[in-house]
């Protein structure tokens, strides 16, 4: 049985394990569910949103910290959740709370702590790149792109747990199957969380590097493919085979702009703010 056949068999077993409750997909954090429901209801008040966010003191404190940073602040010092909400607006607050809560969830995942920290920081770097790239195209929602960048590899977390339970697999094989299957598992998890379809597609297709939608302008999947390549580079490692190759997503996202790594200082500050205690 070749690697692709084995991967299909593993995916079938994973789906069966989920159906039998032998592998439980992580739940979307309650604060995310409540905040998203409130902000999408059409009649949410600042007071209601402040009350919900304040029920999670760690997220409330981090939101104020991010809102009071040089990245987000518009000349007004921020010292409370209410000020952060007024300054940032409901849509951005919803995005930030979602990202902060999911970072907490990721941080509690099992496995190698060093590898997990690299996973979280890599997701934040790619998230910031996705935001930066999407801001060049008015029809794209930069905050949605940023959330998709954070979540594009989320399938690795339940998949790693499942692969650890397969004694016949060597360490190298687990890594290979993780790379092959995590886009499918990520899309499955985001659908389980009832996330927007654009985020599901970003998770599902981000490793299809030479994908071409046939349209001249980038979509959200193009943005995350480009961000991945910019983050990891093509000089060595997993994407080295694309060095010197014309990648449609990169061509669309970088046409007419400086192709140097964008907003590096913003990326570093976001990572520090969102991962520091």
From TrEMBL:
Residues 25-209 form the HDOD domain. It holds the Pfam family HDOD. Signal peptide: none annotated. It comes from the Bacteria. InterPro entries: HD/PDEase_dom (IPR003607), HDIG_dom (IPR006675), HDOD (IPR013976), RNase_Y/CdgJ (IPR052340). NCBIfam families: HDIG (TIGR00277). This is HDOD domain-containing protein. It comes from Halopseudomonas formosensis.
């Amino acid at each position: 049985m070749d690697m692709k056949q084995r991967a299909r068999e593993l995916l079938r077993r994973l789906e069966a394990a989920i159906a039998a409750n032998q592998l439980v997909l992580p739940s979307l954090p309650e604060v995310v569910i409540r905040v998203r429901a409130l902000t999408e209801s059409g009649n949410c008040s600042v007071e209601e949103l402040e009350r919900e966010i304040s029920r999670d003191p760690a997220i409330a404190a981090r939101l104020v910290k991010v809102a009071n940073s040089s990245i987000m602040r518009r000349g007004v010092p921020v010292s409370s959740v209410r000020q952060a909400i007024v300054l940032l607006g409901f849509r951005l607050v919803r995005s930030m709370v979602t990202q902060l809560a999911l970072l907490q969830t990721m941080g509690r995942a099992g496995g190698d702590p060093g590898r997990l920290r690299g996973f979280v920081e890599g997701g934040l770097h790619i998230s910031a790149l996705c935001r930066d790239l999407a801001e060049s195209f008015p029809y794209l929602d930069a905050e949605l792109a940023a959330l998709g960048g954070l979540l594009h590899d989320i399938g690795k977390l339940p998949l790693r747990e499942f692969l650890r339970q397969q004694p016949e697999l060597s360490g190298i094989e687990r890594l290979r199957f993780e790379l092959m299957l995590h886009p499918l598992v990520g899309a499955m998890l985001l659908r389980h969380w009832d996330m927007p379809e654009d985020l599901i597609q970003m998770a599902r297709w981000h490793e299809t590097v030479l994908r071409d939608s046939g349209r001249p302008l980038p979509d959200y999947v193009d943005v995350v493919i480009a961000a991945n390549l910019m983050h990891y580079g093509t000089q060595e490692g997993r994407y080295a085979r694309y060095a010197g190759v014309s990648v449609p997503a990169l061509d669309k996202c970088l046409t007419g702009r400086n192709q140097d790594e964008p907003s590096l200082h913003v990326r570093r500050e976001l990572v520090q703010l969102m991962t520091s205690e």
